Amino acid sequence: MCKLWLAVALAASAQGKTVAPRAVTLNNREKLLAGGSARFGAQLVMYPADALRTLAQTRKGAKTLSELGARTLVSGCATTSMFAFFVGGLQFSIFGALRPVAPAIVASACASLGSSVAGIPQEVIKQRLVTGIYPNFATAVGRIARTEGPLGFYSGWRPTVARNLPFVVICFCSFDALKQRALRDRPEGSSLTSAENYLYGVSSALVGGLCTQPIDVIKTRLMTQAAAVGAVPYAGVVDCVSTMLREEGPGVFLRGLAPRMSYMGPLWALQFGLNGAATDFIKKRKALKEATSK
What we know:
It is a multi-pass membrane protein. With 294 residues, the protein is mostly helical. Helix content is 72%, strand content 0%.
């Protein structure tokens, strides 16, 4: 996987300059590999920015970055990013399989729900590592499994799905619309350039991020409330929202917006860009293999 991602990164600058043969398409396994490698690479690069976003959204009483130390910005970086491979792989493979036969909004909604199987555990572990609840990945997995059971890995799943579903739908639908418009007057089989993939990716993510920011704050609070020493735990989503409004005011729902935007924009730009490059890379390899086998 890492070798593929490195090859994709090196090939990204050449994306869009040549057109893969029209007959060459990716099967579902190859779409999963391309999308997974893209998300893995993007998550790995943007992990520190995501950690800053999480710390900015935690409840009063939780430790700050100065108390936790700079190392917390990369705590669990490699291990939790492995989950990202399956998140991205499921998103792109499900969307790619359904898009030819379903509207973009349906395909992207299914992609979001399907990827939640891996995405929610990734969020739970990542955010608890960043906030210092657990010292390392192995301890986090072992303690969650022992004290909370399998459902502990899906803590806060309702607000997470409520955030991810509209966010992924907005991102994929926006990107798909921009892509279709850009390719409308080009020869059949053309690809977006690297610049277009990155530009459309960041634009789609910024719109989706702004629309889902309040839900993201609620989700982070529920997943990391154990880090707030002495605070009464939230009883659920409704209690979380009412307590935040009462104690901190409506402005709290925009907390961490700047670090989140600085994270989500580049993350999705890289994800769409690397997925496009990976797709072209695999197509060219398949085309070469078919040509040499004749």
